From TrEMBL, chain A:
Lineage, broadest ranks: Bacteria, Pseudomonadati, Pseudomonadota, Alphaproteobacteria, Hyphomicrobiales
An example Gene Ontology molecular-function term: iron-sulfur cluster binding
A Pfam family per the record: Fer4_15
SUPFAM superfamilies named among the record's database cross-references: 4Fe-4S ferredoxins (SSF54862)
Highest taxon of source: Bacteria
Full protein name: Ferredoxin
UniProtKB/TrEMBL annotation, chain B:
Organism this protein belongs to: Bradyrhizobium forestalis
Entry keywords, A to Z: Heme, Iron, Metal-binding, Monooxygenase, Oxidoreductase
Ranges where the record places region Disordered: 1-22
PROSITE patterns given in the database record: CYTOCHROME_P450
Annotated protein name in UniProt: Cytochrome P450
Cofactors that this protein relies on: heme
Length: 69, 407
């Protein structure tokens, strides 16, 4: 059984590049200004783990954490 | 008689490390080896030109400065021969704003530029690309800068603002005078800004009687944090900014991308066979050929990557050089069309992240998709010359291509 992942966007670091939303639309939402936050409580559904890591490694502001639970 | 369309010359650079000049023809033509040389010398270099200016050469130094609004002000964002007084007339909030003024000014501009808003604009951009291609597809050779890349962003932003797309040539002329000629000749810049302001004032006045569903009316209807409408000067400044920032930047990015694909058949063939890779390729092309170099003014003394920086100097904030730093990007000097980890800074870092980044990305993707669909075979015309713009925004201004399969 693979470990469960959660994503989290640090709202103080996010500047709205929206890379996470482009690369992992299931895991992130944008607000009216285009700034990102995690969808729901950030739990990564099985099968989307790669997208979580991809979003993290493409955030120019290093605002995304992937937490292994 | 001197050519009024060419900026005055600076003495040629012989010592890049101590006397760099981003308007030198060598930098304009091929800046990449210069940046490598400077990066090897120091994370921050200095020139006495432009009344004193630093250049951070590493990704880390660029990030430090972009995130440090205490020591580095955005009140001046173009490195030029002169430092004219700062007035409300030449301010263009939020790009020329520092905290705490910056955030509310930026938040006003963000909602019309979200990815969802760009999806609504996408069909128009696709149509613009195809209208342009229709016009030259039957020809054997074309200047893709003059006939294609140049027109896409200006028509898209005109469409968003609600001003006639047919006024595009006017806007392109203002931008050239402000961003290129203005570096060395203040009067040319002021004249262009004045013409631009008069043009937009007329559009604002017209909308006071007859509101429209466009970005100009959106700004006129916007309210500041106290619930008051923006002053006309603020609306004007924002419009100037959108036009200046939205045109030759993306024009350059699309042009550099096509230039790369014209001379790299393997990448071109791969994107035609695997069009879903285009968004990833766009990010890599943005990294490798970032068009925009910004600037800051040092307001209090500090150190950056161990180097002291002193007030009174400008900083040339080279996102393009940062994006070529091999410490940050493996194979930084190569275009890796499917690069999966790419924290490039083409749209800036920190609070001044480009408001139009979602627009630029959409325009680049659509422009490449439509071009590759209709013109899968093209290459640089050996009889022509590719020329690059000078200064703050770098991209091909002449892009002679031969169309069709090579004989």
């Amino acid at each position: 059984m693979a470990e469960r992942l959660k994503v989290h966007v640090d709202p103080d670091k996010c500047q709205g590049h929206a890379r996470c939303k482009a690369l992992a639309p299931e895991l992130f939402e944008l607000d009216e200004y285009g700034n990102a936050h995690e969808a729901g409580d950030g739990t990564v559904p099985p099968g989307l783990e790669d997208k979580a890591w991809l979003a993290k490694s493409n955030c120019p502001e290093i605002a995304i954490d992937v937490i292994e639970e | 008689m001197s050519d009024a369309n060419q900026p005055a010359a600076h003495p040629p650079v012989t010592d890049w490390v101590h006397d760099f000049d981003h308007t030198d023809p060598q930098w304009t033509e091929d800046p990449f080896p210069i940046w490598d040389e400077l990066r090897a010398a120091s994370p921050v270099v200095h020139t006495k030109r432009f009344l004193g200016c630093y250049l951070p050469t590493t990704y880390e130094a660029v990030r430090e400065i972009a995130n440090d609004t205490e020591h580095f002000s955005s009140r001046r964002i173009i490195v030029r021969d002169v430092r004219p007084e700062i007035t409300s007339k030449n301010a263009a909030p939020p790009i020329t704003s520092d905290p705490p003024v910056h955030k509310p000014a930026k938040q006003l501009l963000l909602p019309p530029f979200t990815p969802d808003a760009m999806k609504k604009l996408e069909p128009r951009v696709r149509a613009i690309c195809n209208e342009l291609i229709d016009d030259f597809i039957a020809e054997k050779s074309v200047d893709a800068a003059a006939r294609y890349t140049k027109h896409i962003p200006v028509r898209a932003i005109a469409h968003m603002l609600g001003i006639p797309e047919s006024d595009s040539d006017l806007f392109i002329d203002w931008i050239h005078r402000i961003l290129e000629l203005g570096i060395k000749d203040e009067s040319k810049l002021l004249q262009a800004v004045q013409e631009m302001s008069a043009y937009f004032s007329d559009h604002i006045e017209a909308r006071k009687n007859k509101p429209t569903d466009d970005l100009i009316s959106y700004l006129m209807n916007a309210r500041d944090k106290n619930g008051n409408p923006l002053e006309d000067t603020h609306v004007l400044g924002s419009l100037r900014l959108l036009l200046i920032a939205g045109i030759d930047t993306t024009w350059s990015a699309i042009g550099s991308s096509l230039w790369h694909l014209a001379k790299t058949p393997a990448d071109r063939e791969r994107l035609i066979a695997e069009p879903w890779l285009i968004p990833t390729a766009v990010e890599e092309l943005l990294r490798a050929y970032s068009p925009v170099t910004m600037a800051r003014e040092v307001v209090t003394e500090t150190t950056i990557s161990g180097c002291p920086v002193k007030p009174g100097n400008m900083v040339l904030l080279s996102f393009p050089a940062a994006n070529r730093d091999p410490k940050m990007f493996p194979d930084a000097d190569k275009v890796v069309i499917d690069r999966s980890e790419n924290r490039h800074a083409a749209f800036g870092l920190g609070i001044h992240r480009c408001v139009g980044s979602n627009l630029a990305r959409m325009e680049m993707q659509v422009a490449l998709e439509e071009w590759l669909k209709r013109i899968p075979d093209f290459r640089l015309d050996p009889a022509g010359t590719v020329t690059w713009s000078q200064g703050t925004v770098r991209g091909p201004r002449q892009l002679p291509f031969l169309l069709g399969k090579a004989m």
